[in-house]
Amino acid sequence: MTTRRKEWIMQKECDEMTYYARLFRMISQTKDESFRLNKAEEVRGLWKITVTLSLVSMIIYGIMAFLGVGSEEISKNGIWLSSVDFEASKLWFVLGRMVYGLLFAAIVIFLPSLLFYLLTGISYKKLIIIQHTALIVFLIERLLWIPLALLAGLSWYVSPLSFGIIASYITNISWIVYFFGAISLFQLWIIYFQANFLAKYSDVRNRFVWLNVILIHFLGWVVASVLANVDSYIISGWFG
Fold first, then answer.
1. Torsions phi, psi of 68, nearest 5?
2. Of residues 136, 138, 117, the one with CA closest to residue 126
């Protein structure tokens, strides 16, 4: 065997033990990438992707706020404010939403990763890669909602991609509509993606994995409905 051939084999074995984090790769090649991630002994590019996604989340939420998405309370109270105060309120709203976007990204990436690590014992870094994918899907869902909000005037909880629009025809109780509005087709894909990876590459029983993943998302939907229910009061209290 030639020296060049040996070097090629050593490099290939080294590459197989190292997983390089890349945007969208886990979505486009889920099965192969999940297998490589599980087999890898080292993960690289983790924090670069984390920072990138956090900034993208801030930008998306900032753009949404700048376009007026979710600012109904500010507009409603705008007639009572001077032009300077009204512009200042819009600026603070945009900045607040950008901070929210950063916190949202941090929570989606790190909190479920910690809970899944405690549940399965899978490497925390590998679970962060899984949550990168979950966050990308969340952000794609937000981007798709922007034209629905601007052109059709739909709030997030009655998006045709969620179950909130069905709940709104059944009940007028706001927190119930918010709860089901937090459940979307994108969220169901994320649940399947997370549970499938954890069940396949851990020693924990499949039923227990699925139950815990669904429970975590259920708690997230509850928190989302509570925050949405008090959000209008917070905004009106700040800018009213």
1. 90, 5
2. 117
Instruction: Please give the structure tokens belonging to residue 224.
Output: 């989302």
DSSP tag of 67: T
3-class SS of residue 123 = coil
Reported as a pLDDT band with limits 50, 70 and 90, residue 236 is very low
Q: Which residue has the tokens 């969340």?
A: 138
A 10 A CB-CB count for 83 gives: 8
Nearest to 209 by CA among 110, 136, 118: 118
Q: Dig out the tokens for 8 from the structure.
A: 């090629």
What is the spatial distance between Cα 129 and Cα 193, in angstroms, rounded to a whole number?
Answer: 12
What gap in Å lies between CA 129 and CA 49, rounded to an integer? Answer: 9
Strand partners, 19: 43
Overall pTM > 0.70: yes
Cα end-to-end span (Å), the chain: 78
> What does the radius of gyration of the chain's CA atoms come to, in whole angstroms?
21
As given in the structure block, the two tokens for residue 30 are 């889920």
- Angstrom distance (rounded) from CA 126 to CA 108: 14
In tens, the pLDDT along 122-155 reads: 999 999 999 999 999 999 999 988 888 888 777 7
Phi, psi of 19 (to 5 degrees): -105, 125
